[in-house]
Amino acid sequence: MKHVHILGICGTFMGALAILAREKGYKVTGSDQNVYPPMSTYLNNQGIELIEGYDYDLLALKPDQVVVGNTMRRGMPIIEDLLNSDQVYFSAPHWLYEEVLKDKRVIAIAGTHGKTTTTSLVIKLLEDASLNPGFLVGGISQDFGISSRLTDSPYFVIEADEYDTAFFDKRSKFMHYHPWILVINNLEFDHADIFNSMDDIYRQFHHLLRTMPGKSMVIYPEDDQNILHLLNMGCWSKRITVRTKSLDISSAKADFSEFFLIDEDKTELVQWSMLGEYNARNALSAYAVAKVLGLSLTDVVPGFTHFKGVKRRLECIFHHDNCAIYDDFAHHPTAVRETLMAMKAKAQTQEKVVAILEPRSNTMKMGAQESELIKALGIADEVWFYQNGTMQWQAKIHQKEHFLVFDCVDDIVAYFTKHSKEDVFTHYVLMSNGSFDGLHQKLVNAKQWLIENSRAGK
Predict the structure, then answer these.
(1) Do β-strands 3-7 and 27-32 pair in parallel, antiparallel, or remain unpaired?
(2) 3-state secondary structure at position 15
(3) Beta-bridge partners for 155
(4) pTM of this prediction exceeds 0.70
(5) Which of 1, 64, 114, 239 is most deeply buried (CB count within 10 A of its CB)?
(6) Per residue in 163-207, pLDDT tens?
(7) What ranges make up the beta strands (E) of 11-61?
């Protein structure tokens, strides 16, 4: 049995890759600086041995291959030892292609927003059609409870991230996937820590287009000007547009929990658990993939209806008589805006929406999109902003009656405890692509404590 050791194993992508390696028959071990649940538990339950930290003798493990995650850097002792040895090593995307993707018809979902949800939708539609796709997605699908699997299907669905591959390969990860179908949901500036401008992002996406053969397909919305600019730089694959502004989707409810999906002279009503026009757009992209594979409008509606979503995508984690608490992964001004617009559309008259944000992504911490972020947050009735110690800009300059800035998570909990007894039903939307220092559970615990005390007449 071959042995692969994975450096940086506890990231979502790397953990999912570890599961694929195990399913390929490898002995899998790995290490990370942050070995804690739920990923550590998930991997251990899959029979994968974890080492916490990087202060160990990598070569003594005698792996056949080492997979290097993109959190690893030159100057780290373990990386210097690796480079000074004759040990075989790969980036994670390279290893994934060589071991899994090169024999598959790859369906890659790219773009700035909606990748995880759209990928999960495509997987669901193909699964319901008995196509049994393999997949790797940057989140936990609530339909499958896992983020990756290997099957004997010719189809493999993957979330195609534009972040860089490794310290020794600064191309975007998706350059290694060689898609048969590429979905580009949208295109905006992001990842200011590695991209200086939109031109850098165009360059990486265009590198990908230049590698795709004429028989491959690019699916994209007709109304995204940045994508149109990209394609005008040169595209040699078949283009398939989704007409989002030409009644391919039409809302039956303001929050898009019901919408009409329209294809030429056929119309179907979709009733599902998701919210927001942006998710209806994701559904439209997923349907475009399904249509290429021969599925009809009628075929896909049950898949949308029963789609359970992805953890941390406007996921309701608590609901009571006078409040609901949601966990959302939003970490870009556009995602924040769309999330809050969906929640405002859902909220009944007189209900409040409180946005609680942790600026955790590198782009947010740098303040590269400060003005756009503040404007997006303004959609909420009230904003609680967590100004953690890693921020490179001062949110307090925006503080006012409805925009409160906190330096400590426990202060947010205290404020919530004091003010959540109001008669007005309030939707609390927590937005972070990290743990938010455990704030989600702390707010749930605080609310449960208030409820119990209320029942006791205290």
Answers:
(1) parallel
(2) helix
(3) 105
(4) yes
(5) 114
(6) 899 999 999 999 999 999 999 998 987 776 777 888 999 999 999
(7) 27-32, 49-52
